[in-house]
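ugh ok fine here u go
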Amino acid sequence: MYKIIDKVDYSDDVYMQVIEAPAVAAACEPGQFIVLRIHEEGERIPLTIADFDREAGTITIVVQAIGKSTRHLQTLGKGDSIANFIGPLGIPSEIEKVGTVVCAGGGVGVAPVYPIARALKEAGNKVISIVAARTKSLILWEDRMAEISDEIIVTTDDGSHGRKCLVTEPLKEICEAGNADLVYAIGPGIMMKFCCKTTEEYGVKTIVSLNSIMVDGTGMCGACRVPVGGETKFVCVDGPEFDGHQVDFDQLMARQRQYLNQEKEALDLYVECGGDKRCLT
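structure:
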């Protein structure tokens, strides 16, 4: 069992948990992910590592509750335990000194971009961070990002905090000025898609971290397949990071929508049956 050391609710459906997992904390690197199960009959939930503390032996995850399992996980707090916590999985970020790196995070995507930005800063890069959300209350980890960035730009769709614009506006300005050698963009599929369209115009290499449908996390099931550069890649073993200019975002998002629709239908049926699991079989 893996104990929850700390838990913070950021909003009704976004929360942070710090999990005691010494073996994972000792081996993980920025950009990797874990797969957890709440209990022995639970589904496997893939989550990108938002932070790690090797000395304390802990892994931090930030979760947006969407389906039944992530909402169940949200009910667990400090002192509770989960059954399985597998990792680190995936290929780590390639951390090199390249010059100036723009790290753009949208919504909960700010959490997984944080350890990457920190590592890039430690490698000697200038880090410009863009933290974006729909509204002020959904801005995540602005203080943490500010601590490891040379410059931070905050944007909200409604202008309630920072600049009133989408993440692509300051990103375009930075690229136009020739001040970006590399871009990391992590967030909703639509946000990553348009970040990549923006940087492609200026020939700036852009790395994205994909959150496709995933089951086993070891490349065996094929559920996380996504077209990249005309080839089928598996996010769990070939990624989760890819050259964003090569990713077929339209197909990625179409598969995500299909899964979410199925999840909602199953959850509605479960509620209608009074919580009887036999309704889902």
